[in-house]
Every structure is written in structure tokens, then in C-alpha cells.
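Annex B. Sample input.
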Amino acid sequence: PLIAEAAERIRLAAEGAQPIYGVNTGFGKLASVQIPPEDTQTLQRNLILSHCCGVGEDSPAEIVRLMMALKLISLGRGASGVRQEVVDLLEGMIAANVLPVVPAQGSVGASGDLAPLAHMAAVMIGAGEATYQSKRRQGAEALNAAGLAPITLGPKEGLALINGTQFSTAYALAGLFQANRAARSSLLTCTLTIDAAMASTSPLLPEIHTLRGHPGQISAAAAMRTLLESSEIRESHREDDTRVQDPYCIRCHPQVVGAAMDMLGFAATSLIREANAATDNPLVLTEADRIVSGGNFHAEPVAFAADMIALAVAEIGAISQRRIALLVDPTLSFDLPAFLTPDPGLNSGLMIAEVTSAALMSENKHLANPCSTDSTPTSANQEDHVSMAAHGARRLIPMTENLFQILGIELLCGVEGIRFRAPLKTSPALRRVMAQVERSVAPLEQDRYLAPDLAAAATLIREGELIDNTVPKFEKAEELAS
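Annex B, continued. Sample output.
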């Protein structure tokens, strides 16, 4: 009922004399130009076509599909003023997997993600391009092949489709999902390092973390204690160990990844709200019988969330890389062979794998610089403060991919290090993990072509199979996934 009521209010407004933005006016700086009722359909079609200015590589199919689903949710709030036919077509495209070709660059995150969403809307009117059944087609052709028909847009409907934060939010959500998986994986890789380096588990005592009170830190330490339970390696050096304290990269992992998890949880809360929000302009307030201009299209919440996720990803990678460096250095690793090879000198072992991890860590540090603090005026200074949420969110995918590689390298180093502690055994939980790793990566007895090993380890981290039954999930991530 709300969708129909709002659409009727927009129809009546378009026939009236009162100027209402985007209904019977131009757009942006041209909002003062009033449009006669007979040009309403042309106005909306021109809006879509003129705003298809995206450039760069095509957005991944899963991002486009998520963006479309988020737009469907937003329109379903009944505040956008579109007809049910528009909602039905978008839903039909999602169901049939007709995915518009959406270039990744061109949005500043206010007034919404105009260019990317225009490429989506173009297909709905039979223009643009889309993929259907793995084939790239013209928009009308893709719709017809799927048994759908293009739509002629009514008053405000083009504006409702392109004004919103769904492109940025889709990328941010994808980055959040991957960052959460990486954070959980780091608990696993760190515990492997702890046993490989014969480090202390005393810093994991629950009393330490309860005294500080941060939920993520408490959860991280608890998970790590569980992973290390019944380790023979730990018991072997519980007494008479001359080392008083381990380096921070081992001792402080619950504090670092716990803070990251808490920050990811905050970002998740913000993105959950945004995913369910009406974010176009103007909005139809049906109960008040008003059509009101506002600023819900400004993606600052998404930009802030993306910056938080980026910081968390960079820090998880930074502390993991320091543990990799520790394990390959015999002066720090408690007598493991140099670069984790049985015959250092003749063999270089994991020497350059550590260098690769350093390169990826540094790249992520650079990418973690905030995007939300940047702004530039657009549209002849009418849209004079923007969020930069789109590229802030887009960088999260390459950042998390870098992190998967870093954690994969730590995974290999930890497994190799534990092998050198034989006949002592690690914990039952970590032995199961090592068995999974060995199905993909053979023990490193001598130098070999290592690129496939690094790729396999990163895949194990990326796909999450190592942590599915070993590392507990976190409540906020579960809420978001549902």
C-alpha cells in the first residue's frame, strides 16, 4: 500500500504547478528549471542516459546483484514514489540474473551513487548493457531474452533509481564479509605461530582480558585458548623458559584483532541500517502527505564504515606480517632454522614469501588512508560536500585479498615451524588444521616453485574452510549474514 500511495502522490504533484525537485524540475544546479507535465517521461529518460558516465573496469557480478537487491529494499520502503511496476521489474531482473554492466568508477558518494546506479537503471529502460546467461548483451536484448520488458519511467522514477547509496553499500558489505573472515582466520594463524615459536599462552588468560573489558578482545583470547588447548609444545616449555615475555606481535594479538573485530562490529551496525534505508531524494512522507527534499543520499555513514574496515584490515595484516618475520628469523623464533628450511644456504625456504608479505602489508597501509576526509564540490557547487564512499568501499576488496595472502603466508610459516618441533605435537585442533593444509600444500623439504603454494594457502584462508569448525563466529557478523 505504501508504494502505491507514494506513487499516486508523485503523479498528482507532477501535474501541479508547485515545483518539486526531480518531479517537475531539472536536476542538481538545474533544479530551478521547471518542467511541464508533457515532458515528464522525457525528463526521466534523459536523466538516466545523461548520468551513465561510469568509467573503468566493470563491477563484479556479485556486487551488482547486491546493489540491485539493496535498491529493491530501499524502494520497498514506500518513500520513493515509484510505481509497483518499477519494483517488479527490478525484482524480476534479480530473479532472472539479468545483471547490468556497471563501471566501477565515477561516484563521489553524494548525491548518492549517481553514475553506477544510472547504468543499472539504463537496462530497465532498454538501454545500456547487461549480462544474461554469461553473455554480454544490449539492455533491451537482455531483458527480452529473460522474458522481461523495458519500462517507461514515470515522474521521479528515474531519480529514485539513481539517487541512493546502494553501490557504495554493496562494496562496503562485501569488504566487511571478507574482513570478518580474515579477522577470524588471524586467530588461527596466530595460534600456529605461538606453538611454532614456542611462545607463552599466559597472555591469553581470561582474567587479563576481563580486566580491560573490550568484547572483541575477550572473544579473541577465548578462541585462541581453545585452539591451543592440550598442546604438547606448550607444556614442554611451561617451566624453565628463560624468555620473560614474547614480542608484541604474539602477546598482543587479542588486543589488536579484538579491537579490529569491535570496529568491524560497529561498521556492521551502520551498514545494516544503511542496507535497509530509504536513501533517495526527495522522499514521500505519506502519513504527513508531503514530498520533502532531504539529504539521505549522502553516504557519509558508508564512507566512515569503509574507513573503519580498511583500518582493521591494515592492522590485522601488519601484526601478522611481524609474526611471519619472527618465524623466519632464527634470532627471534627460538631456534627454528633460518627461513624455515632444513638446509638454509643451499635452500632459501620461505625467505621471499616473507618479503611478499611485507610488500602486501605496506600496500594495505597506504590503501588504509581515510577516504571520508576528502571532499570536492560538484554540480556547480550545488553538491558542495561529498562522502567519497564509493572508492573508499571499492578499495576493500583488493585490501582483503592482500590480507588473505598475508595470512596464507603466516599459515605456511606456522605449519612449517610446528613440523620442526617434532616429536612434540601441537594441539588436537591445530593438528586438524595442519592436516587440511597438507592436503593442499606439501611439506617444504627443499626449495621448489612456491607460487602455487602461496596461492593455495590464500585460497584456504579466503574460502574459510579452515575456520568453519575451529574458530567461533562473532555475533555481529552473524546478525549481518542473516
